[in-house]
Amino acid sequence: MKNSMIKRVICGILMLGISVGAAACSEKADAPEEVSSTERAAAVSNGELKEDSTVIGVGSTKVSYNEYQIYSWFLKNQYEDVMSEQVWDYNLGEKTVGQSAIEDILRLIIQIKVMNKEAAVQGIGLGVDEKEGTDHKADQYLITIPPEVQQANGITAEGMHQIFEENEIARKMYDVVTGNVEANIDEASMQAAKVLMIHFPADDSNREEVRAKINALAAEQKTYSGNFYSFAREKTGAAPQEVIIGKMDGRSALVNTALTMEKHSVSGVVEEQDGFYLMYCLKKNTRGLNKVYREQYITEQQNMTFQAAYENWAEKYEVKVSKSLLAN
To answer: Largest CB tally within 10 Å, which of 41, 153, 189, 307?
Structure first.
């Protein structure tokens, strides 16, 4: 089990998957700090938390403990349907799943608040019809939650409306920032191949040693009686990666090799800055595969474009998080 599983669950609930930097934790609610041009964060409660306690400040925007509880319930409701309640005590190394989940929920809430604050600056919001439609979705979702669960987790129609509306505004902000990405992509350049890949990382300190190792592996593969997947498992202890690689990838030697391979053939050793590769071609340059690669590339470019914009927005707002919340 990994942190990424938790992120996927949250993103699945709220339909917005963008990673952001770690939230700042306030040492004291009124601690003096040099903030320069950033909007100062609202004071947070570091004592006993009540429903209306402020647990996160994103600039002047306050997030109550009740709002945090609703976001937390979203996660638990989805995750515990798959795993048991004991999953939160599972140790990931330096922290438990539960501790990691708290941090991920905080990041998500901060992200949503930053995006909504920037939306207000840019005059982006919900029209009357959009608000009514979003609130209707929230009401329909609320119906599926048993009354006792609503009461135990502080879930109200007002709170659900706010969360759904703010997530819809965040989605609109994402669309505004990334709207031109697809139009700027040349469809003719979207040639791709699907390969099984063995990668041996290398840098200047060990390049020749790794080169000798993968050359020996490639020579051994030529006389191997089984398939490439079995070979990789047997010789490296791990399954090969299944990857769609295409012309827009920065690893030019790898791309050129993949696109000139015959189906079901094995490449020679390919050297790139990050190490050495050995590939088996599953499929190449079909209309369906090229379409998948194009969609994959567009998503990557959209996320990069958005992340750059988000980082600029986030710099405008100081963030504080309750120590009491982090201690839960």
So the answer is: 41
3-state secondary structure of 61: strand
- Bridge partners of 235, per DSSP, are none
Q: Which residues contact 282 (CB under 8 A, 6 or more apart)?
A: 193, 194, 195, 196, 242, 263, 264
Q: How far is it, in rounded angstroms, from Cα 262 to Cα 245?
A: 15
Q: At what angle do helices 287-314 and 157-178 cross, to 10 degrees?
A: 110
Q: What is the pTM of this model?
A: 0.72
Asked if residue 151 has pLDDT above 80, the reply is yes
User: Distance between CA atoms of 100 and 84, rounded to whole angstroms?
Assistant: 17
pLDDT in tens, 83-100: 445 545 555 566 665 667
Q: Which of 25, 35, 29, 27 is nearest to 318 (CA)?
A: 35
CA 122 – CA 316 distance, rounded (Å)? 14
**Hey, what are 2's tokens?**
């990994």
**CB 200, CB 210: distance < 8 Å:** yes
Segments in 154-206 forming alpha helices (H): 157-178
Q: Is the dihedral of CA 4, 180, 245, 207 positive or negative?
A: negative
**Can you tell me the distance from the alpha carbon of 221 to that of 227, in angstroms, rounded to the nearest whole number?**
9
CB 156 within 8 A of CB 186: no
Using the Cα atoms of residue 41, residue 47, residue 49 and residue 50 in order, give the sign of their dihedral.
Answer: negative
